[in-house]
Amino acid sequence: MARPRTPIGTFGDISYVKASGGQFRARTRFRDDDGKVRRVSATGTTKREAERNLKKIVADRSSYRSAGELTGDSTFTRLVDVWLADLDLEAKVAPSTRALYERNMRQLVMPVFEGYTLREINVSKVDQFIKRLASAKSYSMAKQARTVLSLAFGLAVRYDAIQKNPVRDTARLRKPPSQAMALTVGQVDAIRAAIRSWRRGPGFAGPPPDGQLEQIIEVMLGTSARIGEVLAIRKCDVDVTGAPATIRISGTIVSPAGKPTRRQPHPKTLKSTRTVSVPSFTAAVLRDRLVKIASEDPEHLIFFSRNGTPLTTNNIRRRLRAVLDEAGIVGVTPHSFRRTVATVIDRAGGADLAAELLGHTSSKITKEHYIQPDEAVDPVTAEILESLAPKRSEGGEL
């Protein structure tokens, strides 16, 4: 019968021999991380001291072996560090998503769980945390916290630190009822007017705005593109020689923490790359921008800062918010234009066409989050129901 192997990271019986100089040598066999058994020894003036020194050497080898690993006694903070390092190693998520994950973990989750070891965090603790967060803050925050918790504990399961992911058995989050709201034509015109007049005319010191904000909005309205995708459009992505003009949406602007803002060579998802035909008001903006960069390289961005660097999405959002606050227009974000485009396209061509324009793989997300529900029922129902009209007699009575 085969003798059972000593588990990795453990040592066998300790033996002692007299060493030179009157010292004692403690020896044992240690099964290392590669599965091989090695002899380890240490000396001391007494047997007890030699044993202590030996155990310290073994403990140091075990600590070195597990420096990148996790156990049930690892702290949650340790798990977070290993998880973030693993995200960087795999590099499968966009830098903006990586930054969002870390922010949500450190701001929403860490304050609650940083004092626990992994074996102390059970389904009940996670479930109560998520429910309290949804109640005290919002469904969205609770959902984001649940996502990063599940990802981190999934790594702990793969590292054999825990047997089950405690997030998996928590109660399902119930999304509160909501619906997408699109802007009306009147609201869009009011926004245009507010931007055109912002900080222009007598009474305003300094140079007037460069006009890019209103042009960016016209491109958003003509393409349904996200704000980052619009800011990432290059000279080579635009073709105004045909009718209608087209834009290839093939990148987005990202601002990684601690790094310069740059153009990412694909949109939010790789499948979002698309070529969009644009209406005449967007084509007019494109022609104006192309004139301004006529001598520039084909890779040059259509929209850019005074220094020629990429515009950041946060700066555009702040500028739009400042303009609309002065005009008394509330509740409008860059995403409002995307929902407006989706709703207009849906009314004329259906949800599938809207999804195609927005770069979605199916119309389900488009319907749920971007298209404002249409309360109007097809008026053909009135004609059909005429068949139920009361019959009149020859004298005209019912």
CATH superfamily of the largest domain: Intergrase catalytic core
Q: Which geometry do the CA atoms define?
A: elongated
What does the main sheet amount to? 3 strands, antiparallel
List SSEs in N-to-C order: EEEHHHHHHHHEEEEEHHHHHH
Rounded to an integer, what's the Rg over CA atoms?
A: 32 Å
| Portion in helices | 40-55%
Distance from first to last alpha carbon: 101 Å
- Unreliable spans are 63-67
Strand percent estimate: 5-15%
Taking all residues together, what is the mean pLDDT?
A: 87
Alpha-beta classification: mainly alpha
Q: Per CATH, what is the topology of the largest domain?
A: hpI Integrase, Chain A
Question: What is the tally of beta strands?
Answer: 8
Task: Give the CATH class of the largest domain.
Answer: Mainly Alpha
CATH architecture of the largest domain: Orthogonal Bundle
Q: How many structural domains can be distinguished in the coordinates?
A: 3
- Strand ordering within the main sheet: 1-2-3
Keywords: DNA integration, DNA recombination, DNA-binding
Biased composition (Basic residues): 260-271
Pfam families: Phage_int_SAM_3 (PF14659), Phage_integrase (PF00589)
Domain Tyr recombinase: 178-383
Descriptive overview:
It is a single chain. By secondary structure, the protein is mainly α. It folds into three domains: about 15-65; about 75-160, DNA polymerase, domain 1; about 185-200 and about 210-355, Orthogonal Bundle (hpI Integrase, Chain A), CATH 1.10.443. The protein is built from 14 helices and eight strands. The strands form three sheets. It has a three-stranded antiparallel β-sheet. A three-stranded antiparallel β-sheet has the order 4-5-8, with no helix packed on it. The chain is elongated. Residues about 65 have low confidence and may be disordered.
